[in-house]
Amino acid sequence: MALSYALLNLNVPVESFNMIHESVQIHPSAVIEGNVTIGANTTVGPFTYISGDIEIGEDNEIMSHVVIKGPTKIGNENRIFPFAIIGEECQDKKFSGEATSLVVGDRNVIRESVQMHRGTVQDKGTTVVGSDNLFCVNAHIAHDCVVGDNVILGNNATLAGHVTIEDYVILTALSPVHQFCTLGAHCFVGGGSIVVQDVPPFVMAQGNHCKPFGINIEGMKRRGFSKDEIKAVRRAYKKLYRESLTLEEAKQEIAKEAEEYAVVKQFLDFLGNTQRGIIR
After folding, report:
1. Are residues 50 and 145 both part of a single domain?
2. Minimal CA–CA distance to 102: which of 93, 276, 112, 114?
3. By C-alpha distance, which of 115, 189, 186 is closest to 156?
4. How many structural domains compose the chain?
5. Per-residue pLDDT tens digits for 218-270
6. Is 144 an active-site residue?
7. Cβ neighbours of 75 (radius 10 Å)
8. Among residues 52, 61, 96, 276, which one has the fewest Cβ atoms lying within 10 Å of its Cβ?
9. Is residue 203 part of a domain?
């Protein structure tokens, strides 16, 4: 059955909604209830369930059998594939129904059976997902995670609670990340890895437990970093991982070059802010 604008088929009175734009297309089998706002040119597919305090922006494609619960805010131009569960309550035994939230940015591709859970009051209360990300089949984003922009999570990649994923990270298939870990910008984690400590920016890593194997040269080239910047990051990597220095000794050596290269300063700042320690 083709999608059609079917607001009158919803199971609650129209006045209970903040706003559903007249250009929204809602399949007659979809259920929408609660304080829901849907922006222009969004489509809602068959058997999708949207419930709670929900704000959905413009030009989104929400396919069949999607569950969206709130409080949740979703931006513009996202594509959400069947059986994704967005904004469900978290898997935390301390959760007692508090009004925590999920915020999702723009232009994300959220594939089949992806789960994104709301935050907890024990942390910031909000799970945050940025823009231009690809979340492959069955990727899991737990409570209080922060995911940046241009991130790829492969099939069955899983983030435990309180994880931070910086911009341009690639976490490939079947890789779980331990609570409170941070994956630095532009790092690449190979498939089947278990991440239990922080992965610095630009680093390539793999294994159980995850170990460093160089820097993400190809990714840096694709994103426009210069040859000098790539070489500077390689030198910083060698100071950290190849010269048998302690972390403090490596930081002192890296600091010399951080004065000249912003990418090295980014690398150094990450080392200074790590909470769980870095992979070694």
Report:
1. yes
2. 114
3. 115
4. 2
5. 999 999 999 999 999 999 999 999 999 999 999 999 999 999 999 999 999 99
6. yes
7. 21
8. 96
9. no
Amino acid at residue number 54: I
The question of whether 105 is a catalytic residue gets the answer no
Tell whether 261 and 156 lie within a shared domain: no
Q: How many helices (H) and strands (E) does the chain have?
A: 4, 28
What is the pLDDT of the chain when averaged over all its residues? 94
C-beta neighbour count of 150 within 10 angstroms: 17
Q: Which residues contact 230 (CB under 8 A, 6 or more apart)?
A: 215, 217, 220, 221
Q: What's the domain range around 250?
A: 222-273
- What pTM does this model have? 0.94
Contact of 228 with 264, CB cutoff 8 Å: no
Structure tokens at 263: 């990418």
User: Which residues make beta-bridge pairs with 6?
Assistant: none
Whether 6 shows a pLDDT value over 80: the answer reads no
Which tokens belong to 129? Answer: 């997902």
How much is the average pLDDT of 101-108?
98
77 lies in some domain: yes
Catalytic option among 130, 140, 144, 148: 144
From 143, 162, 178, 186, active-site residue: 143
Q: Check residue 172 and report its DSSP letter.
A: -
For the question of residue 167 being annotated catalytic, the response is no
| Statement to judge: residues 38 and 133 lie in one domain | yes
Q: Which amino acid is at 75?
A: G
The conformation of residue 15, written as its DSSP 8-state character, comes to G
- Cα separation, 131 vs 30, whole angstroms: 26
- Residues 192, 178 contacting (CB under 8 angstroms): no
* Catalytic one of 161, 178, 184, 198: 161
